[in-house]
Design goal:
The chain is of the alpha+beta class. Helices cover about 20% and strands about 40% of the residues. It has a single domain, classed as Gamma-glutamyl cyclotransferase-like (Hypothetical upf0131 protein ytfp). The chain has a five-stranded mixed β-sheet with strand order 2-3-1-5-4. InterPro entries: AIG2-like_dom, GGCT-like, GGCT-like_sf.
């Protein structure tokens, strides 16, 4: 598995509560970034990113320290309700390009809502304006 950076857009962003619990002290770089081709929807206290061709999500590109990379990623997978191939996942972790302010587009791990959940969110969910969470 490649040691890609992580694109975060919700409670794992710097300054949010899960950043302090799971990422603080385990990163080597944090940069503002955006994910094109996705939109945000309200979840139960956290957002879901859903593929959406003409939208974007604002967040941060987090580079994890190499020494603890696998352990931190495993912990984040559990936090996000993701296990490879599990039928009850909330998210899928996928590698996608994200855009930095410099115009660079490095690949990063992104937690996206599963296709079934994404369909439900598009149909009955509450979109988050401008792809920024929290939006208030």
């Amino acid at each position: 598995m490649p040691q890609l950076p992580l694109f975060v857009y919700g409670t794992l962003r710097p300054g949010r509560h899960n950043y302090a619990r799971y990422l603080q002290g385990h990163t080597t770089a944090e940069k503002p970034a955006r994910l094109r081709g996705a939109a945000l929807y309200e979840g139960p206290g956290y957002p879901f990113a859903v593929p959406a061709p003409h939208s974007q999500v604002h967040g941060d590109l987090i580079t994890l320290a190499p020494a603890g990379y696998a352990a931190v990623l495993t912990t984040l997978d559990a936090l996000e309700g993701y296990a490879p191939g599990a039928p009850d996942n909330l998210y899928e972790r996928v590698a996608l390009p994200v855009e930095l302010p410099t115009g660079e587009r490095p690949p990063a791990w992104v937690y996206l809502a599963t296709p079934t959940l994404a369909h439900t969110l598009r149909t009955t969910g509450t979109p988050i304006p401008h792809g920024r969470w929290p939006h208030h």
